[in-house]
């Protein structure tokens, strides 16, 4: 039977290319990209104090651009290329048309699509780290930190867990879409970097109100809906598993948001909008390592736990544990990403359905990819405990990798560039760092002065006359 003319193989569409899979993969990648630009750009720029809006948003925008150049320059091959050492691939450029048009190592689409898809994951990881450093990190130090951390931390985690030749991938670790590689990494790295950079100004730590909660919600909405591509794109095909992953993602997230909201009402008496946003994020993070390999009821249970356990660590334990109180983590990425990411990895080890795992990994492997709950149910207890052990090993590896590498990178940068802004810059904020401010409005207790746009060099309006009328020159 002959194919329709638009599906006939040709030079632009070789016989291995699946147009539907390729179209979805490009769409999913763009949805993930929108989570960062403009999603987290808007969220960061609006959730901070007004004087930090420009700097916070621009840290995210810069990271997105810088990661792409590093990714095609050497990063992709280090994360998904031929083995260089046990933990990483050989650095190489990913820009030649011969390589870009070849079939990717997985999926029915070209390397160019895979590089783009994996880039947006790498970019959002760095942007999440920035969340812990808002309001005090030297922007020049951030410019150096981004390529160094991508090279010496992210690529190692991605190669170990996602590349078919990675040592944890061979052991059978389940990280569906980045609970370890992205969220646990960014949470631990952000917390570690925040320690080395130092805290915000005392005044900012005591009072740091959002400058625009409505815009914050707009950024959060882009983050939530963009997760459709985040988890729905990881089967690398338009499959039933992709559909399941998308639905589980939203079910878990909604449950987590509502759980966090309920706890805020019960213990603090008011439904906090910022709290609900945090609950949304922890739900998204928790389901990420499990999205397409757990059943819907498990997604709901994971949402209940992701809305309550990180809430407890943030609202209760944070005030009791000395180390947590010492480190100024602006966006609480330790709780929303490190705690929620670890929780998701452990719950994946418990709830992972062997049938769904075989659909996702396309292997008949009865020794790996079975959650402890199903191991106990089916009598394969050893396999279930083994899977849980591998999940815990992944947590230990990612935490150790990021504490060590992030510390070494920060210490190396500190030899050349101060990590923290000066006290004068911390007092002024955006205008001192970028010479720009977010709004043509005045707040934070400053007196409003009516001015013509200074870019045209115009003088101030003349003062009003005795009856309030303006005196003309």
Features:
473 residues; mainly alpha; two-stranded antiparallel ribbon; 19 helices; 2 strands; globular; membrane; transmembrane; Ammonium_transpt_CS; transmembrane helix
Structure characterization notes:
This protein has 473 residues and is mainly alpha-helical. It is built from 19 helices and two strands. Strands 1-2 form a two-stranded antiparallel sheet. The longest helix has 34 residues. It is globular and about 70 Å long. The C terminus is likely disordered. It is a multi-pass membrane protein. Its main location: membrane.
As residue ranges, the low-confidence spans are 450-462, 468-473
Number of helices: 19
Strand order of the largest sheet: 1-2
How many E strands? 2
Residue fraction in strands: under 5%
Mind telling me the C-alpha Rg?
24 Å
Average pLDDT: 91
Structural class: mainly alpha
Q: Portion of residues in helices?
A: 55-70%
What's the shape? globular
Order of helices and strands: HHEEHHHHHHHHHHHHHHHHH
Largest sheet: 2 strands, antiparallel
Subcellular location: Cell membrane
Protein name: Ammonium transporter
Family: Belongs to the ammonia transporter channel (TC 1.A.11.2) family.
Pfam family, one: Ammonium_transp
Write the layout of secondary structure elements.
Blueprint: H1 19-47, H2 53-80, E1 83-85, E2 88-89, H3 97-100, H4 111-130, H5 139-161, H6 167-171, H7 179-197, H8 202-206, H9 213-232, H10 240-268, H11 273-287, H12 296-315, H13 322-326, H14 333-351, H15 354-361, H16 372-378, H17 381-414, H18 423-428, H19 430-434
């Amino acid at each position: 039977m002959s194919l329709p003319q638009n599906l006939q193989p040709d030079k632009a569409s070789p016989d291995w290319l699946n147009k539907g899979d390729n179209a979805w993969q490009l769409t999913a990648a763009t949805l993930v990209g929108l989570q960062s630009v403009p999603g987290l750009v808007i969220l960061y720029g609006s959730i901070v104090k007004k004087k930090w809006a420009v700097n916070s948003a621009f840290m995210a925008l810069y990271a997105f651009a810088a990661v792409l150049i590093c990714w095609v320059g050497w990063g992709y091959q280090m994360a998904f290329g031929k083995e260089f050492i046990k933990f990483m691939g050989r650095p190489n450029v990913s820009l030649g048309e011969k390589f870009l048009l070849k079939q990717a190592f997985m999926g029915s689409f070209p390397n160019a699509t895979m590089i783009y898809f994996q880039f947006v994951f790498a970019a959002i990881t760095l942007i999440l780290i920035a969340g812990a450093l808002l309001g005090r990190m030297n922007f020049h130090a951030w410019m150096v930190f981004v390529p160094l951390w991508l090279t010496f931390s992210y690529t190692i985690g991605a190669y170990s867990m996602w590349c078919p030749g990675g040592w944890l991938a061979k052991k059978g670790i389940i990280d569906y879409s980045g609970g370890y590689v992205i969220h646990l990494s960014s949470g631990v790295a952000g917390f570690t970097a925040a320690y080395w950079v130092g805290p915000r100004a005392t005044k900012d730590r005591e009072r740091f109100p959002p400058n625009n909660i409505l815009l914050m919600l707009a950024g959060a909405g882009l983050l939530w809906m963009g997760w459709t591509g985040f988890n729905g794109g990881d089967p690398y095909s338009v499959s039933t598993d992709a559909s399941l992953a998308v639905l589980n993602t939203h079910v878990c997230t909604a449950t987590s948001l509502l759980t966090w909201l309920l706890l805020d009402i019960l213990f603090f008496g008011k439904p906090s909008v910022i709290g609900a946003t945090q609950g949304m994020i922890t739900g998204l993070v928790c389901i990420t390592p499990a999205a397409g390999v757990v059943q819907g009821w498990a997604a709901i249970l994971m949402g209940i736990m992701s809305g309550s356990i990180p809430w407890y660590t943030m609202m209760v334990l944070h005030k009791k544990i000395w180390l947590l109180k010492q480190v100024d983590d602006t966006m609480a990425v330790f709780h929303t990403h490190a705690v929620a990411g670890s929780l998701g990895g452990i719950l994946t080890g418990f709830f992972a359905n062997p049938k769904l795992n075989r659909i996702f990994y396309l292997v008949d492997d009865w020794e790996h990819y079975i959650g402890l709950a199903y191991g106990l149910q089916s009598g394969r207890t050893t396999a279930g405990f083994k899977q849980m052990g591998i999940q815990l090993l992944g947590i230990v590896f990612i935490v150790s990798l990021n504490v060590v590498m992030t510390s070494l990178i920060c210490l190396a940068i500190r030899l050349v560039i101060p990590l923290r802004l000066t006290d004068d810059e911390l007092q002024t904020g955006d205008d001192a760092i970028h010479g720009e401010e977010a709004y043509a409005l005045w707040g934070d207790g400053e007196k409003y002065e009516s001015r013509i746009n200074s870019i045209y060099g115009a003088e101030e309006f003349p003062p009003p006359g005795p009856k309030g009328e303006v005196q003309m020159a």
